[in-house]
Amino acid sequence: MKYKNLFAPLKVNSMILKNRIIAAPIGEEFSEKALGGAALVICGHTIVEPGRSSFASGNEQSGFFKYEVEKTQEKIRQCHRAGARASIEIFHAGQYARVLPGEYAVGPCSFIREDGVEVKALDKEGMERIANLYAQSALDAKNLGFDAIFLHFAHGWLPAQFISPLFNHRSDEYGGSLENRAKFPLMILERIRQTVGPNYPIDMRISGEECVPGSIEFKDTLQFILMAEPYIDSVQISAGLDINHEGNVRMATTNFCEHMPNVKWAREVKKHVKKIKVAVVGAIMNPQEAEDLIANEEVDLVAFGRSFIADPYWPNKARDGEAEDIVPCIRCLQCYHISTNRRNVGCSVNPRYHNERFIEKELKPCEKQKKVVVIGAGPAGIMASITASKRGHHVILLEKENKVGGTLNLISKEYYKEDIRAYLDYLKNQLAKSTVEVHLSCEADPQMVKEMKPDALVIAVGGKPVSIPIKGSEQHHVISYVQALENESLIGDSPLIIGGGTIGAELALELAELKGKHPAIVELTDTLAAQGNMLYRIALRQKYESLKEPIQIHYQTKCIEIKNDEAVLQHQDGSLETIKADTVIMCVGVRSDRSLVESFYDITPEIYEAGDAVRTRKIQEAVFEGYGIGAII
Length: 633
Hints:
Blueprint: E1 10-12, E2 15-17, E3 21-23, H1 31-35, E4 40-47, H2 69-80, E5 85-91, E6 105-107, E7 111-112, E8 118-121, H3 124-144, E9 148-152, H4 158-163, H5 178-181, H6 183-196, E10 202-207, H7 218-228, E11 234-238, H8 245-251, H9 263-272, E12 277-281, H10 287-295, E13 301-304, H11 306-310, H12 314-319, E14 371-375, H13 379-390, E15 394-398, H14 407-411, H15 418-433, E16 437-439, H16 446-452, E17 456-459, E18 463-465, E19 478-480, H17 481-486, E20 495-498, H18 502-513, E21 520-523, H19 534-545, E22 552-555, E23 557-562, E24 566-571, E25 576-580, E26 583-586, E27 590-592, H20 594-599, E28 606-609, H21 619-632
Parallel strand pairs: 3-4, 3-13, 4-5, 5-9, 6-8, 9-10, 10-11, 11-12, 12-13, 14-15, 14-17, 15-16, 17-28, 19-26, 20-21, 20-26, 21-22
Antiparallel strand pairs: 1-2, 7-8, 18-27, 23-24, 24-25
Helix pairs in contact: 3-6, 7-9, 8-19, 13-15, 13-21
């Protein structure tokens, strides 16, 4: 076995795990994570104080409320039938709770939230009450049949609010020093251990650092873990905050963060604890990374959140020597509802996520084999081809370039697109293993396709870069973003990027941070990378703010003339400004080539469009459309 350390068993208190893999509590689908091979599945959360615990809903009931018990126990059965152990997160939102009208939230300190809700500082009686509620929830979990419990002491929830100086400004015996700030969280742990007994596994998640100014530092986190060690059996090291968006992008990292950012803290915890197991969560992206962490004894367990949304069968594929078949997470954060205000929530690489109601887990074999011609081998075309071929169709994929991947080939050239490169490799590998007949350097035209006599036709031709008329744009130092990404030597020391979308914004960042150049951006709107979700934009801004020399961004401005080594800008108020520009890079987007798309109609009655052929798409939309079409032909 290639990953023998990752798949070695481990005993945590009285619980034996078949491997070192934990499925973290994200999403509502737990059955597939268990079937997919994780040893321990954390099946969502339960609140400890109905009406004042959950950020999700002011009247949410505990998972152990009499009308919720059967649904909660079903999660356990889903895990046990697959040989996995079942755990449940026990949670209190504290000052962030969404309460009923006229009610109040509780936390370490009293204040009025921005939404007008009163937060009252917990007194000793309140702490005793909540500690007992935690203990009761833990006992309910044990009695219901959960093999372990997972205490959420991270990300700015109630216990973390007491531990962290960002939230805890008390001047009494529960504030000030770490020893004082730790008293209430330790009370919770002690009460739980007294209630469930010595042999029941207790796991605790904590942020190594919260990653915003004024928050807890790792040295205090480490000391708290050592204080907590007598009461727990394992600790999971995370980072960042949840509701605080500046810290949220360190809790669930974007493509701007390195892989495995929390290992540096987990490694130190492992060196200092005496008896408990140490787990780490956060951007462990592939089996080799996980294997090395275990083999090098940096941690005892590895936990996965978004990776198991992308592919819940990640563990089984790694175990069976099929790591190349794991669908890699690209860290786009589309799976977080907070990222899009609940619009377009899903997974960019797993079409079923959030769509389980109408996209079946297993593809149905086709009733009648058809000749399916797919035009364009971008992500939409590849997904349509692979999916249709799996169902038994004869698929012919036509691509005008000499390689598959479409725009992904271009995007993957950017420095911060390591995860996109992994996904592109995955698509290429799956296509190579399929029965799809691929024709490269083959630019389709209607007559060619008509002569192939397809039964079904999928048009996934992609879009084409938009060009805008600007005086002087015909000069040799005016290039497209395609040219810029493919040939860095064309870019001078002071490039002007026209268009501050995601490609333009990341290109400017790379040129400034890694190439030592001095780029400027001209953007018509008031937002940089507007098509990216909120958390992506926050992470992007944080990267910009970390630069030694700021990138000049001209918002609500257009370029009206390009000269030999400078450009003339016009601001929203009509004023003009001339800036240095030894290279001008056009990054004004992609547009569907509708005339090309429409030229393929009338070839066959069964015809589909996917991806940028329809209109400009995200990877998520292209993959979903390609898969969906391939699944119904």
